TrEMBL record:
<feature type="transmembrane region" description="Helical">
    <location>
        <begin position="119"/>
        <end position="138"/>
    </location>
</feature>
<feature type="transmembrane region" description="Helical">
    <location>
        <begin position="175"/>
        <end position="195"/>
    </location>
</feature>
<feature type="transmembrane region" description="Helical">
    <location>
        <begin position="65"/>
        <end position="82"/>
    </location>
</feature>
<keyword id="KW-0812">Transmembrane</keyword>
<feature type="region of interest" description="Disordered">
    <location>
        <begin position="318"/>
        <end position="355"/>
    </location>
</feature>
<dbReference type="GO" id="GO:0005886">
    <property type="term" value="C:plasma membrane"/>
</dbReference>
<keyword id="KW-1133">Transmembrane helix</keyword>
<feature type="transmembrane region" description="Helical">
    <location>
        <begin position="39"/>
        <end position="58"/>
    </location>
</feature>
<dbReference type="GO" id="GO:0090263">
    <property type="term" value="P:positive regulation of canonical Wnt signaling pathway"/>
</dbReference>
<dbReference type="GO" id="GO:0031410">
    <property type="term" value="C:cytoplasmic vesicle"/>
</dbReference>
<dbReference type="InterPro" id="IPR040236">
    <property type="entry name" value="TMEM198"/>
</dbReference>
<feature type="domain" description="TM7S3/TM198-like">
    <location>
        <begin position="45"/>
        <end position="240"/>
    </location>
</feature>
<protein>
    <recommendedName>
        <fullName>Transmembrane protein 198</fullName>
    </recommendedName>
</protein>
<feature type="transmembrane region" description="Helical">
    <location>
        <begin position="94"/>
        <end position="112"/>
    </location>
</feature>
<dbReference type="Pfam" id="PF13886">
    <property type="entry name" value="TM7S3_TM198"/>
</dbReference>
<dbReference type="InterPro" id="IPR025256">
    <property type="entry name" value="TM7S3/TM198-like_dom"/>
</dbReference>
<feature type="transmembrane region" description="Helical">
    <location>
        <begin position="150"/>
        <end position="168"/>
    </location>
</feature>
Length: 355
């Protein structure tokens, strides 16, 4: 008896007939960069890459510029979302009006964060906590599923406040860490847009909403997520290196200024020793004798002014007025006493210098 032929069923899956064939690849995880991305988002991402490099490598070096950019972007983003999504004065604002209001308030916030150092540090700490919270929320997806949306929101707020307090307490290390991690996160987000159309950003929103049964991330998403702490560490090392070089150059400049100041002080001290004199008769008392040794003195140096006064009185007699003659015992500091010639003498006034 002939064997009964079983009916054939047409199917698109050939695995029941050949079990050795591999499973077809998941088309969702095939890396396909965008062919023609939109112009405006592409320009924003390119600008974000420039800002991310500045933040990551020169955050502490360009502190004022980074604080201004942080205040500008944060304030503008928050106000734009509020104006564009919510009704203001019972009126739905257009995109252009919302962008203008957001830009104006963002400029004001940028100036405040740049001029007020504590506000800038507080904002840097907030951004550091939010960046760390977002990374932790994405990294713990395979092992933890939040039961409610309040859990990730509360975790982000707590980490943000903790980062702000730590940055206010230790400004230098946490400013370096915060700017490096934030710049690395911006670079990763821009690369995520060009590679997979902000898949990590959309997954972060889903995690914040605590949506259940989410499909797993693809391998390149995990690669991008893993490059974020690596780029942050490299940026922090680069900033510390730049700070050490700047500190060494500043220390050398300070030392050179101090040495120059000490040399000037020595010169002024030596000049003060040689020119330490006082006007009047006190100029001659002891100064000339201290400068010359006893063997080099002139005998006329020991003549006292009282001797010349008594000599004049003996020659002219008391109460006699005569023209004065100046006697200078020393070219620099000598005793100056009034002398006169005898009465009736035709000699003019003399200036006698005894050296």
């Amino acid at each position: 008896m002939e064997e009964a032929l079983l009916p054939l069923a047409m199917t698109s899956d050939p695995r029941p007939f050949n079990q050795q064939l591999p499973e077809p690849p998941d088309l969702r995880c095939v890396l396909q960069p965008q062919d023609s991305p939109d112009l405006a988002p592409a320009l924003v991402c390119a600008l974000g890459c420039c800002f991310g490099i500045i933040y990551c490598c020169f955050g502490y070096r360009c502190f004022k510029a980074v604080m201004f950019l942080s205040g500008l972007l944060s304030g503008a983003l928050v106000i734009f979302l509020l104006c564009h999504k919510e009704r203001v004065l019972e009126t739905q604002l257009s995109l252009e009006v919302s962008a203008g209001i957001a830009l104006g308030i963002g400029l004001l916030c940028g100036l405040v964060t740049m001029l007020v150092r504590s506000v800038g540090l507080f904002l840097t700490g907030l951004l550091l906590g939010l960046t760390l919270g977002a990374g932790v929320l994405l990294g713990t997806e395979p092992i933890y599923q939040p039961p409610s949306a309040w859990v990730p929101a509360g975790g982000l707020v707590g980490l943000a406040l903790l980062g702000a307090l730590f940055t206010l307490r230790w400004p230098r290390p946490f400013t370096v860490l915060g700017t490096a991690l934030l710049g690395a996160a911006v670079l990763v987000a821009c690369a995520d847009y060009f590679l997979e159309g902000l898949a990590l950003g959309s997954r972060l929103g889903q995690r914040l909403q605590a949506l259940p049964a989410l499909p797993p991330l693809c391998w390149y998403s995990w690669v991008l997520l893993g490059t974020w702490p690596a780029l942050g560490a490299l940026g922090a090392l680069a900033q510390w290196k730049l700070m050490d070089e700047e500190h060494g150059g500043h220390a050398n400049v300070v030392l050179s200024h101090q040495r120059r100041h000490l040399q000037l002080l020595r010169i002024h001290h030596q000049e003060a020793k040689w020119h330490r004199t006082s006007p009047g008769a006190g100029l001659c008392e002891g100064s000339y004798r201290r400068q010359l040794p006893a063997s080099a003195r002139n005998p006329a140096d020991s003549l006292a002014p009282s001797y010349f006064q008594s000599l004049r009185e003996r020659q002219l007699g008391p109460g006699t007025q005569a023209p004065h003659t100046v006697l200078d015992l020393d070219s620099d500091c000598g005793s100056t006493v009034p002398l006169t010639s005898p009465s009736g003498s035709s000699h003019p006034d003399l200036s006698l210098n005894l050296h």
